[in-house]
Amino acid sequence: MKNYKLIEQKYIEDIHSEVSLYEHEKTKARVVTLENDMDNLAFGIGFKTPPKDSTGVAHILEHSVLGTNEKYTTKEPFFDLIKTSVATFLNAMTFCDKTIYPFSSKNKKDFYNLLDVYMTSVLFPGIYKSKNIFLREGWHYELLNKEDDITINGIVYNEMKGAYSSEDEQIYDGIRLKLLENSTYGIDSGGNPKNIPDLSYEEFLDFHRKYYHPSNSYIYISGNLDMEEALETIDRDFLSKFNYLDVDSEIILPPARTKREEFNYEYAAAKEEKNKDYLAIGYNLGRYDDKIDSFMANFMSELLIDSEAAPVKEALVAKGLGEDVYAITQEGLVLDFNIFSKYTSRDRKDEFVETVESTLRDLVKNGIDKDLLRATLNKVEFGIREGGGANAQIYRFIWAMSNWHYGKTPFEGLDFSKTINFIRDKIDTDYFERYIEEKFLNNENSVVMVATPSATKNEKEAKELKDKLSAYKASLSDEEIEKLIEDTKAFNEFLSKEDSDEDKATLPTLELTDIKPEIEHTEFTVEEYKNSEILKIDQPTNGITFLNFMFDSSFVKEEDLFYYSLLDAFLTKLNTENYSYQELDNIINMNTGGINSKSIVLTHNKTREMMPKFKVTMRVLSDKVEKSFEILEEVLFRTKFENKKRMKDILLELKSDMDSRVIQMGHIVAANVVKSYYAKDSYYQEVIGGFIFYNRLCDFIENFDNEVDTLIAKLKEFASKMFNRRGMVVSVTQEGNHMDNISEVKKFIDHLIDEEVVPSPFEFKENPRNVAYTSSANVNYVAKGYSYNKIGKEYNGNIAVVKNLVGSDFLYTEIRAKGGAYGQGLLVNQDGDMVATSYRDPHITNTLKVYDQIPEYLKNLKLTDKELKDAIIGSINTFDPNLSPQDKGELAMSRYVTDLTEEEVAKNKEECLKTTLEDLKNYAEVVEKVMEKEYICVIGNEEKIMEHKELFGEIMPLQR
């Protein structure tokens, strides 16, 4: 390969790829190529970027280089590409000691367009010519009037305010930063909002000068691609323009403790309640660049804490030490392993530590159950071999980078069978007991944390910031204040300024002729069998069979929906007739890739009728299907709903999981609440899994002893009626040579009851509750919308272009670029939903005003033919998303059950491709009527919500 030196080359069976490692001769840039038959072409470039403080410089730079650059001169080429590319993945990520820029596309022309933009962005960014990029992405002072207070805004600044609003994030940061203090990992590479304003523009530029050089880069290319052509392009257009640079990217390791340290920590909470403390113990396990140690950290998490049979979790839960127990280990050169008990008492710290370590001592002394070891390994291996699903090519880049930048090779991260086989060979030895003894019990390089809630922490920090900004303003002369006002106005003008035609012309583009007009076809056959239907879907699943069962749950009465919605929480987690729940967990993990269930609701595509379903999924190696059905029948037919303590523990863990998820996905949760005001199926979903369910769950836990007998009776009733072959649909996704497994599916169907399903009525009345959920968070999630179907508009494929332009152009400019929110979008789907959302947003009323301006934006929309074409192309993946074989099977089943045909989807794609400017403008009236309904939901800061309490019909706490 010209201008590259081949270092190593081998075929890796695990990823079905010929893997070649090169070094660029001039710059010593490292390059790995994965030649395979995957049509999803992937690229990534990464840099080793160890930060020295918590100003978030690596994170801010990750955002900033994706702004304007020397070749593509629009303000934000990256976000322009989101609007105009058919990329299947497009992102950038900051880790604790590296920054990566991956993308993938199924279109070769698009792949090379994206490659050029990404490489130009990271190596020739516009940050040196435009300080405004730093101000927008990082932080800046704002002052519009002399009498106003100075404030701070910025996209990363607000993103990290949102991150620090998460209780779980605060707790993990508390122990990690202490355990790894005085090192690269004892700081926050994402940035602490308290420290971000300490970062200067010059320090920001220096970071790029130091680390963003080909000599410090790691380049990845994967797919069915001419690698010689790709490498030649990268050399000719980029690498050849640089000389070798000796980059000092030293990682500072934490000094080893010789004695365990204990400390106290405060986390911000809405209230200071009893038994809301966290107890945690953290261990420094060694170096991540040792592949065995890095694998073992995840293995130990599953073995000791995560599984239902995990002995440390079992011991802590048995003593009532927390409503939830979990472990976290982070990727970095130093391996940390942290065990947490959530919501317990600070007074039980010593008992917590002793319970953890006495359990570990017992495991060392008496030996670990071999079935538990095998089950754990099988579960971990199954997860690795599934390989990231549709985004497998991106995950492989992350795996390759896992220790490549520590001086190892990418082969170690990609050739996982070698590690798995090593671990498997150790199962019948005392390897795991010795590992626990060395890494945990004899490890003084550890810390113990007691974290207590503070209802005033955020308030104190807000006051400190306000006082600091007031003092700063008082230190300014009148001329300096005027200058700050002028700077703020100038910056706002920069944000509002539209790209010129000349700037837009610099962007790479595709033509409509580059887009396949048809959608990807998924072949399947349907066999009717004893009042049920079997969908047989032939896909290259790499020896795995994916089974999906949909049972008709429409018989459940409205007053019983809460009890019904708990059925999936208990299946696989309680004793059965033949196994304890620990034995059951082992046997599931030894023989399958997991058995899961969930109550869901679908909407029929033609009648728009609600379709409640109970969905059961199972993944299994295709040669183990017979055994897996024995286990599935044990779970569905023979679960014993009787262990009340165990049931309460499961519900406490469920509540904890919901508490964590709502902050991580606040925009989605808020949108779902808005939909529940006007849509029957969405209201049903709120009842079985949303806020209505959450509040009922909290009440139930508080009154558990009085209600548990009713729950048990209901669960037994549901289990006796649910698994009914009438109306049941099962999909079997696997390779065609395993279709003999269908006989096992039929045997299972033979064992199901066969009774008529009588639907129960579910009453619904449209009700704009306009709820606000308050928390101690420093940011908000704002949603507003309604059903476009209910105002007379039917679904048309051209609405995908509206979604693209409104979300990625108008809302992006007004809410993210100008408003400082981390994210924004317009949710539109075939069910008639149209909901605008914001994510980690400092505003509420300003954002709602922006939503009301969408109709005006559409009314006045001016697009050249090229801009319209680009917007259409950027919308087309709506109809043809990148899917894994498993995903294709699930989508085929969902479409079949809801009566949505491929022909209809193809027609929608054709409508999208034929979108006109007039079509888009016609949506102005539709959106206007949607926004006039004033259906809103806000999740966020209590003080900000109370400032605008007149907007809401109900205000309630986010968590209980």
TrEMBL record:
Gene Ontology BP, a term: protein processing
Molecular function per GO: metal ion binding; metalloendopeptidase activity
InterPro entries noted in UniProt: Metalloenz_LuxS/M16, Pept_M16_N, Peptidase_M16_C, Peptidase_M16C_assoc, PreP_C
Boundaries of every Peptidase M16C associated domain copy: 451-700
Family matches, as SUPFAM superfamilies: LuxS/MPP-like metallohydrolase (SSF63411)
Regions annotated as coiled coil: 455-482
Domain of life: Bacteria
One Pfam family matching this protein: M16C_assoc
Keyword Coiled coil listed: yes
Enzyme Commission number(s) of this protein: 3.4.24.-
Enzymatic class: hydrolase
Protein name from the UniProt record: Peptidase M16 inactive domain protein
Keyword field: Coiled coil, Hydrolase
